[in-house]
Specification:
Elements lengths: L1 E5 L4 H12 L3 E6 L15 E4 L5 H8 L4 E5 L8 H12 L5 E7 L12 H16 L5 H12 L4 E7 L1 E3 L8 E3 L11 E3 H11 L11 E3 L4 H6 L9
Parallel strand pairs: 1-2, 1-4, 2-3, 4-5, 5-6, 7-9
Antiparallel strand pairs: 8-10
Helix pairs in contact: 1-6, 2-3, 3-5
The structure holds NADP nicotinamide-adenine-dinucleotide phosphate.
Protein name: NAD-dependent epimerase/dehydratase family protein
GO molecular function: biliverdin reductase [NAD(P)H] activity; riboflavin reductase (NADPH) activity
InterPro entries: NAD(P)-bd_dom, NAD(P)-bd_dom_sf, Polyketide_Oxido-like
C-alpha cells in the first residue's frame, strides 16, 4: 500500500507516519518547506514533497500512484487553506483511492449532532475573532468538509475530540453524532487519533462516514461500550 500524508510534519501527521511505516506502507509526506526538518527522524524511510498543502501541483505530484491519502485539515491562516487542500486532494487522487481527513467535533455531517453549550459558545466566539486576527479560518474547514461530503468519493472524515498526549490506549471508539453518551468524556490521545486515521484506510465500514471519536479508555467509552450506535472498534 502506498499512502500520502498531507500535513505530515504536524503532531498528528508524525504519529500517522509512524503508524503507516509500522504497517509496512510506502509513505509520501507533504509539508511546508520550513517544516521539512521536523520529519528528519524518518529520513530515508519516507519521500517528502515540500510545499503548501493547498498547492494543487504539490498535491498532484505527491498523491501520484497512492492507494490512500491521509489529510490533516487545518484551518490556519485566511487563504482557504483547508478547502484548498481538500479540493486538491479530491481532484488529483485516483477515483478509487481511500481518502481520510481529520477535523474536530464542530463539523457536522447531517446537522444531528447535539453540542454542549460550551462548545457552541466557543465556536461562535472563536470563528469571527480568529478570522479578524487572520489566525484561523474555522468556516473554511466547514467548507472543506462540505465539499468532501458531496464528492461521492471513498472518503472518511474523522472528527477528533479534545486531544492529549500520552501512550496509546488502542483504537478509539466512535459514534455518528456528537452528543451520544459514549462520547461524553471528550478526550482522545493524539497517537490514537492517528491510529484511527490509518486504520480507516483499510476499513470499508467507514467509507462515507464521519465518525466522532473518543479514547477507548475514557470513562464514557468504558461506561457505554457496546451500547452506542454504531460505537465502532
Ligand atoms: N488540537 C486539538 O485539540 C484538536 C481537537 C480536535 C481535532 N483536531 C484536528 O486534528 C488535526 C490536527 O490537529 P493537531 O492539534 O494535532 O495539530 P498538528 O498535528 O500539530 O497540526 C498542525 C498542522 O498545521 C500546520 N500549520 C501550522 N501553522 C500553519 C499555517 N500558518 N499555515 C498552514 N499550515 C499550518 C502544521 O504544519 P507545519 O508542521 O508545517 O507547521 C501541521 O501540519 C486537525 O484536523 C484538527 O482540526 C485538533
Amino acid at each position: 500500500m502506498k499512502v500520502c500524508i498531507v500535513g505530515a510534519s504536524g503532531k498528528l501527521g508524525r504519529y500517522m507516519v509512524r503508524h503507516a511505516l509500522d504497517r509496512g506502507y510506502e509513505v509520501v509526506g507533504v509539508c511546508r518547506e520550513r517544516s521539512v526538518g521536523k520529519l528528519a527522524e524518518f529520513a530515508n524511510r519516507i519521500t517528502v514533497v515540500p510545499g503548501p498543502t493547498n498547492d494543487r501541483e504539490v498535491i498532484r505530484r505527491a498523491v501520484d500512484g497512492c492507494d490512500g491519502v491521509l489529510t490533516v485539515l487545518v484551518p490556519w491562516g485566511v487563504q482557504q487553506y483547508s478547502s484548498g487542500t481538500a479540493q486538491a486532494v479530491l481532484d488529483h487522487t485516483a477515483p478509487d483511492a481511500r481518502l481520510v481527513f481529520s477535523c474536530g467535533w464542530h463539523i457536522s455531517r447531517d446537522g444531528k449532532d447535539r453540542y454542549s453549550w460550551k462548545l457552541r459558545t466557543a465556536v461562535r466566539i472563536a470563528t469571527p475573532l480568529a478570522k479578524l486576527f487572520r489566525a484561523v479560518e474555522i468556516d473554511d474547514q466547514v467548507e472543506a468538509c462540505r465539499r468532501i461530503f458531496a464528492s461521492g468519493r471513498r472518503w472518511t472524515v474523522v472528527r477528533g475530540s479534545d486531544l492529549e498526549e500520552g501512550e496509546s490506549q488502542g483504537l478509539p471508539v466512535w459514534s455518528r453524532h456528537v452528543g451520544d453518551p459514549v462520547l461524553a468524556s471528550n478526550l482522545t490521545r493524539r497517537i490514537d487519533f492517528a491510529l484511527f486515521m490509518v486504520e480507516a484506510l483499510t476499513d470499508d465500514t467507514l467509507v462515507q462516514e464521519a465518525p466522532a471519536i473518543v479514547g477507548r479508555c475514557s470513562a464514557s467509552a468504558r461506561a457505554h461500550a457496546g451500547s452506542g450506535e454504531p460505537a465502532g472498534a
